[in-house]
Design goal:
Elements (H helix, E strand, L loop, with lengths): L9 E5 L10 E5 L5 H9 L10 E6 L8 H7 L2 E3 L3 H19 L6 E4 L6 H14 L14 H10 L2 H4 L6 H7 L6 E8 L8 H6 L7 E9 L7 H25 L13 E4 L3 H29 L1
Parallel strand pairs: 1-7, 2-5, 2-6, 3-4, 3-5
Antiparallel strand pairs: 1-8, 6-7
Length: 300
Amino acid sequence: MHKVSVDSLVVEWGDDVKAVSEDEAVVLVNHQATGDVCTLMMCLQDKGTVVRQMMWLMDHIFKYTNFGIVSLIHGDFFIRQGKAHRDQQLVLLKEHLEKYYRSRNRKWIVLFPEGGFLRKRRETSQAFAKKNNLPFLQHVTLPRLGATQVILKTLVAPQENGTPAGGDAVIKESKSKGLQWVIDATIAYPKGEPIDIQTWILGYRQPTVTHVHYRIFPIKDVPAEPEALSQWLYQRFIEKEDLLTHFYETGAFPPLQGQTKAVSREMTLSNLWLVGIQSLAFLSGGMWYCILQYFYHCLF
């Protein structure tokens, strides 16, 4: 079994995503807590210019947090959950991608297909699975199709998946190859206890090691037709369930197909980088507190 030093913050497993860091890719991630974003940001620090050239899809509630203004300026998309908003949000997402993705030279787009945190969606997902004769999942939930389908239709070059992509004109105009890869990222926390943003900032929990597993799929292997794409996505999350089950039982992810031993890489960040991020969080949090206090006094 692979041993992890106590100084390590994140351990990466599976495919080497640095090899495709200069290509366009969509990243599908399981979602357990607000700290998932911090984990991914840390993992991508040594992946070239990916951090500066990526777009995030996140719940609209994050727009009102202390980093919401940064994400707005960066051109990320805040999506509102719920059946009442679903169709409209997908239209807005398509418009946002066509307007900002290539004009801002984005390469990776990060998506949480489950549509919410594991603890909030697990019961509903399991009920849906039982009703539709789908596998019972404990460590992940069944993904939703909408946002993934819009991203693929808008950003995948037609010649790669054989469909008339909605973003065809945008792709030709920018001379882009379109999305070339799907990166399936699975985040695992020891004992299944996720970390939230407050813990990252304040550090009131004992040091822990977060694990991230990657699998890379060529976009040509991803079906475009909605029903086939839905089944393909389901299969990815069923595999995530198996990966996480193995991790929680052994403390390590299993080897990739064709490997006899799982390969991992430990990651650490400089104290200067961590201090900088935490200082920014405190300063921005203080700014929002002052703004709210100002409006409170104006109203009352």
